């Protein structure tokens, strides 16, 4: 077998490789924009007037709401958020809006509330743990332990001998 002589890389080839590596790294760092939910046009929100428009008219102009109020269907929420993500970093919220439209008993718009990013608040998440059921013994399990295994309450041997 013949050994091949190694040729030095030409300057043009080295520059091409460096350019390709730079282009790939720039593409990887290009921010990605995401829109989640309903980012409504401010003009279409301004068109909704209390005392004039009904649920059907609101649905025709703004579409289906993102959410309804928890305990009644008299409040509709349109929720939207725009974020920017660069590579593997945490997404940055660019814009956020919540439009709450309240209706009266007849289904007519009562009020329109607009909230945006400056109205949001960070919340502190509790690290406490809620107790869960399932560790207590049921009636038949207690009877079994007491009568057949000779144990007292909750697995102790209080007052029982074998």
Description:
By secondary structure, this protein is α+β, with helices and mostly antiparallel strands. The protein has a domain at 30-121: Beta-lactamase Inhibitory Protein, Chain:B, domain 1 (2-Layer Sandwich). 25% of the residues lie in helices and 24% in strands. It is built from four helices and five strands, in the order αβααββββα. The chain has helices spanning 11-28, 42-46, 55-62, 139-148; strands spanning 32-37, 67-68, 75-85, 92-103, 109-116. Strands 1, 2, 3, 4 and 5 form a five-stranded antiparallel β-sheet that branches. Strand 4 and strand 5 (109-116) form a beta hairpin. It is flat, with a radius of gyration of 33 Å. The relative contact order is 0.12.
Q: In summary, what is this structure?
A:
The protein is α+β, with helices and mostly antiparallel strands. Helix content is 25%, strand content 24%.
What structural category characterises the helix and strand content? alpha+beta
What is the CATH class name of the domain at 30-121?
A: Alpha Beta
Strand content: 15-25%
How many beta-strand runs? Answer: 5
User: What's the order of the H and E elements?
Assistant: HEHHEEEEH
CATH topology of the domain at 30-121: Beta-lactamase Inhibitory Protein, Chain:B, domain 1
- Mind telling me the C-alpha Rg? 33 Å
Provide mean pLDDT, rounded.
Answer: 82
C-alpha geometry = flat
List keywords for this structure.
5-stranded antiparallel sheet; Beta-lactamase Inhibitory Protein, Chain:B, domain 1; 4 helices; single chain; 162 residues; 25% helix; alpha+beta
């Amino acid at each position: 077998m013949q050994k091949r002589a190694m040729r030095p890389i030409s300057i043009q080839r080295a520059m091409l490789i460096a350019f390709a590596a730079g282009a790939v790294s720039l593409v990887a760092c290009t921010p990605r924009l995401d829109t989640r939910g309903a980012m409504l046009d401010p003009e279409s929100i301004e068109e909704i007037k209390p005392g004039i428009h009904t649920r059907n008219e609101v649905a025709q102009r703004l579409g289906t709401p993102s959410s309804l109020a928890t305990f009644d269907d008299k409040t509709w929420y349109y929720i939207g958020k725009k974020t920017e993500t660069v590579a593997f970093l945490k997404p940055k919220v660019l814009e956020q809006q919540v439009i709450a439209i309240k209706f009266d008993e007849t289904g007519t718009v009562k009020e329109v509330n607009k909230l945006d990013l400056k109205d949001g608040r960070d919340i502190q998440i509790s690290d406490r743990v809620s107790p869960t059921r399932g560790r207590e013994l049921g009636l038949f399990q207690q009877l079994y332990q007491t009568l057949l295994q000779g144990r007292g309450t909750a697995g102790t041997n209080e007052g029982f001998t074998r």
